[in-house]
Amino acid sequence: MRAAVPDALGPPVVCAPLGVERRALDVDALRGVRIVRTGMGRRSAGTARALGADGPRPVLVAGVAGALAPQVRPGDVVVASEVRDGCGGREPVAVPTAKPLAAALRALGLRVHVGPVVTTDGVVDGDARTALATTGALAVDMESADLVAAAAGGPFAVVRVVVDTPGAPLLRPGTPVRGLTALRTLRRAAPALRAWLDACAPRTVRLAEPRSFCAGVERAIEIVDRAIDRFGAPVYVRRQIVHNAHVVRRLTDRGAIFVQEVDEVPRGAHVVLAAHGVSPAVRADADARDLQVVDATCPLVAKVHTEVKRHTARGQSVLLIGHADHEEVEGTLGEAPAHITVVEDEQHARTVDVPDPTRVAYAMQTTLAVDEAMRIAAILRERFPAIRAPRQDDICYATTNRQRAIRAVAADVDLVVVVGSPNSSNSRRLAEVAARQGVPAHLVDDVGELDLTWFAGVRRVGLSAGASAPDDLVDEVVSCVSGLGPVTVTATPTGSENVRFTLPKEVSR
């Protein structure tokens, strides 16, 4: 049963405190949008009350401001991640759409910063400005905190172009020139402002279940965490422990050092082998350097290695269905490179040859798209009737489950977003599986990669995450979409997972 879409929003409004700001925004990109001159400073509060009386609507505040942080220069754009009331009395207001709005502005060639904007009741300089800078705010204005009320609970955003900085205060001869530059930048920003306004609407978000971390990923991350706790930093990790930039960044902050090959690791140091598995040659190199190895290879990947070794030991050729440039395939291929051929697609499956068609087996990369892999396997079975199949499906349970869940979601939405890093095979396959259902599908590393234009006219969004993507990144996407309008969140469960793998002895005690 489809969830009801929330109530509609009122017509969008762009709030420009000054007349010159309003005129700068009077461009074709904002044609048909109501642009209101709110007045400077606390006078804007009256405008906000009047607009808010009509109920929730998208409100975008656009104008100039003063910089607080040293890295923010005249002509730079600041997108508020949070609006603070510098006069006290009101709680900070989060702006969850700040990152995709900033991305839209950067796409126009603008220099953009994302961070808190603080509203004061007058121009600040000297010690007052220095004090505000210590709070972590990037810019200061005199209206944004008051204009939050204009949205009446609807979508709200703030875009400010910097005129003055601590090193170039407002009351200086260069201000008129900087002001003109800022107004030109504000005009250039108009297409991004329009994209934000067009993306604002009530929506339903359907969450695929299961999604995010699988047991193999949880195990690999826990292994690195425990290794750091037990052996102390640094602990070296060959390649990315799992294919997710956010996970790698967090572990780096804890003291992990990621290397490409074990010859970069100091002799005798601790090294963790990533979840995707490695070839025997890598293990031999680690032994030669007297490295203390902790193996985080996913047990399901290790199963494929075992199968391949068993087949090749019997003199059989192995056709490995997978992507040749993926680390998992590289590791599996290393078990017996003279006897293994990687088969990447259906066309290759129709032409690949083996020395003896009666002595052949196939195996699979664990993170493939199930439907594609099965078609390739079917071709191989037809061409080589004696081919030996895996005892159990090589594609891991988590990949299968997530693909089943995304198909269920994609059948009833207008847009699918998959959270995962671009080098994550299972994440990429999720987006491809959704796209084959006939719905636009996009893979994003995090909320900052959302494109506002995807959401124009879209009322139903499907959302999932690859097996190596943390679920808190999904939460950020939901928060961002809710920042574009009222959201009803529903779950589409297609199964449950209770798998857990044991840890290697080096870190389990």
TrEMBL record:
It comes from Pseudonocardia sulfidoxydans NBRC 16205. One of its GO terms (molecular function) is 4 iron, 4 sulfur cluster binding. Keywords: 4Fe-4S, Iron, Iron-sulfur, Isoprene biosynthesis, Metal-binding, Oxidoreductase. It catalyses: isopentenyl diphosphate + 2 oxidized [2Fe-2S]-[ferredoxin] + H2O = (2E)-4-hydroxy-3-methylbut-2-enyl diphosphate + 2 reduced [2Fe-2S]-[ferredoxin] + 2 H(+); dimethylallyl diphosphate + 2 oxidized [2Fe-2S]-[ferredoxin] + H2O = (2E)-4-hydroxy-3-methylbut-2-enyl diphosphate + 2 reduced [2Fe-2S]-[ferredoxin] + 2 H(+). It comes from the Bacteria. Signal peptide: none annotated. Residues 33-167 form the Nucleoside phosphorylase domain. It is an enzyme of class 1 (oxidoreductase). Pathway: Isoprenoid biosynthesis; dimethylallyl diphosphate biosynthesis; dimethylallyl diphosphate from (2E)-4-hydroxy-3-methylbutenyl diphosphate: step 1/1; Isoprenoid biosynthesis; isopentenyl diphosphate biosynthesis via DXP pathway; isopentenyl diphosphate from 1-deoxy-D-xylulose 5-phosphate: step 6/6. One of its GO terms (biological process) is terpenoid biosynthetic process. Its cofactor is [4Fe-4S] cluster. Isopentenyl diphosphate binds at residues 243, 276, 326, 424-426, 468. PANTHER family: 4-HYDROXY-3-METHYLBUT-2-ENYL DIPHOSPHATE REDUCTASE. The gene is ispH. This is 4-hydroxy-3-methylbut-2-enyl diphosphate reductase. The keyword Transmembrane helix does not apply. Dimethylallyl diphosphate binds at residues 243, 276, 326, 424-426, 468.
